[in-house]
Q: What sequence folds into this?
């Protein structure tokens, strides 16, 4: 007997995933009304859709600015395909979230593809030397270093960072982007950004800015 799909279930799934009503209904039917499986079904569909759109030209968009008091400033360019989407509230909201993320988490690159080979090799050599003095068996050292580099890359690349406002601490920026691509039907990308902080590179007191952002957004 087929599971009953109610209007409330479709509404709840739409609010959870931002997918269209028809897509939500189809996902629930395909997943026998299991909300978690339906959400994952839509996420995979969104990723596939986003991958197909990556080659489409995205030359419209916005340059967003964000100031945290007078101490941290961010300038970021977010691209889309049409001026219509560039003016869309969801797109503008996403751009603002990206700027806040950059301010809070201080990424160095948009994605791992942007990490210069020389930087990657330097990071590997530093960790390799440390691993050699750890007393671990020589055979496992390469795996240890690879794991450390993978963790480091996720920390310094914007798209791989966990969204600072995600209450569950699981959703990364790439997933946030994929959701928007699925919702707008356009190729969207974070092209570039710069982050300025007063006294950057100078000795100063430590502040927990991440906790501050989470407190302001109600995620702590």
A:
């Amino acid at each position: 007997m087929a599971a009953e799909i109610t209007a409330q279930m479709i509404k709840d799934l739409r609010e959870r995933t931002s997918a269209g009503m028809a897509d939500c209904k189809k996902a629930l039917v395909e997943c026998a009304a299991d909300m978690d499986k339906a959400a994952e079904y839509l996420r995979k569909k969104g990723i596939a859709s986003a991958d197909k759109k990556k080659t489409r030209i995205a030359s419209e968009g916005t340059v967003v600015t964000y100031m945290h008091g007078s101490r941290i400033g961010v300038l970021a360019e977010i691209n889309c395909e049409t001026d219509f989407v560039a003016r869309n509230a969801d797109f503008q909201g996403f751009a603002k979230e990206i700027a806040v993320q950059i301010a809070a988490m201080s990424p160095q690159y948009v994605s791992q593809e942007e990490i210069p080979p020389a930087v990657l090799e330097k990071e590997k050599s530093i960790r390799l030397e440390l691993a050699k003095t750890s007393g671990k068996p020589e055979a496992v050292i390469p795996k240890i270093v690879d794991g450390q580099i993978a963790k480091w890359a996720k920390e310094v690349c914007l798209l791989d960072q966990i969204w600072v406002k995600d209450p569950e601490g699981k959703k990364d920026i790439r997933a946030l982007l994929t959701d928007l691509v699925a919702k707008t039907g356009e190729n969207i990308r974070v092209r570039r950004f710069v982050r300025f902080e007063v006294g950057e590179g100078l000795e100063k007191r430590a502040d927990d800015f991440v906790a501050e952002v989470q407190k302001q957004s109600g995620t702590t």
Notes: Residues 2 and 32 are 7 Å apart (CA to CA). The beta strands are 60-68, 72-80, 189-197.
